[in-house]
User: What shape does this take?
Amino acid sequence: MEPAGRGDARRALGRLLEAVLASRGRANAVFDILAALQSEDQEETQDAARACSRLFGALLEREELFVGQLPPEDAVMAGSQGPTRKYKVWMRHRYQSCCNRLVELLAHSSFQVKELALSTLMKFVQLEGTHPLEKPKWEGNYLFPRQLFKSVVGGLLSQDEDHSLLLSQFREYLEHDDIRYHTMQAAADTVARVTDGHPEVPLPFWNNAFMLLVAVSLPVQDGDLSSFYVKHAQLSDKWKVTHLKEHRKAFQRMWLGFLKHKLPLSLCKKVLVVMHDSILPHLAQPSLMIDFLTRAYDIGGAVSLLALNGLFILIHKHNLEYPNFYQKLYSLLDPSIFHVKYRARFFHLADLFLSSSHLPAYLVAAFAKRLSRLALTAPPEALLMVLPFICNLLRRHPACRVLVHRPRGSELDSDPYDPDEEDPAKSQALESSLWELQALQQHYHPEVSKAASVINQLLCLPEVSITPLLELTAFEMFERDLKKKGPEAMPLEFVPAQGLLGRQDHLCAQHFTLG
Assistant: This one.
């Protein structure tokens, strides 16, 4: 049940609202409503926000707010202009104060207040779009409340706190094409404003910005641009917002403005995870991502692994030339490659990069040898994937089969292969042998031993798809082993034992008794 004091305050706000809407002579009552919006009490703030939504929503629909460049309030009030103009200018200033306060409430401690402030501001955006507060420069000019919407996006991209929950609520508005278009523009401007002259940008801002940017998803065709938040009697082809080409340009400007800064490493990984399917396909010029991807690829570790996907698209579809690409790919092969989170993605891409039959034999041999050496200490679930991977390399490149057909090779302590050499051309892998695979034939796990024994057979058989093995985990292997049906019980003694010490004529029974 609602407390009596709360109910009285709510009814008082309702009376003030009705008084302002009923008579311009009671316009000063709007100060009481705005005062309630400044309250520290959560319930009172919410009631005031709802009252402001109804009040200024009605005034926008009735077109009782000043339209055009808003003049200073004092100058208009002191001038000789008519009472109607003075009222509209005065009320427009009150509306401006209300919007500013609602933007401040986006940082309120209560999520309910934040959510209400956001929905109220977006209602004003829609009403301002339908009943513009600026004069069109020419007939048919596209009008959108850019300043109000820019302040909303600026409030969402807080520098002090995580707004992930509020941004998830904002996602529903991004389904509208005009909101999405202006969000991209406002986000690009906000990132530029915050980072300009600030060498250290707080981490919450980067996280909020990334969550907003990654929520923007463009349609595939021009004809899909039909859902507008601000309703128009008729859409014009002259408006940029109606063309997918302009959306792509805004999308590109937004992401390039974000990625040109030095991002935290954790955030860089998140960007690279979505780069290949959520960013590159929607850019007007995907090749402009070359700098970011090559910079990320040179970092090393997991970041380099994640950058591979984007680089593959640029190399394969946009003719990117990356010097020493395979040398860098070779350097990524270290013992940690079998344990990283993105192992499956790396080996999928490595398989694609090494699929060409035009690669030199020394290069393929270096990859096969490096992987074989790493396989000696790899876990079983990784070995079941990497062993077919190595065999596939030998099948694609017959010149490398000498690695398994060198019975009189050098002794293990004089293996010519240099594992510390970063350049695969100088590693002397082609002069070595894959003795590691022969050693793995004695592995404790029977499936690994079986996979390693494939090199004893003819390698002219078709390639084995490693796709089902990329995501294989130790838990799945264990579960699979548990489900295997073992052989039937096998008798181990011809004559059944009698008693704890065996049969009467048994040597143990002759010399020992149980007391």
User: Anything to note?
Assistant: Residues 110 and 288 are 41 Å apart (CA to CA).
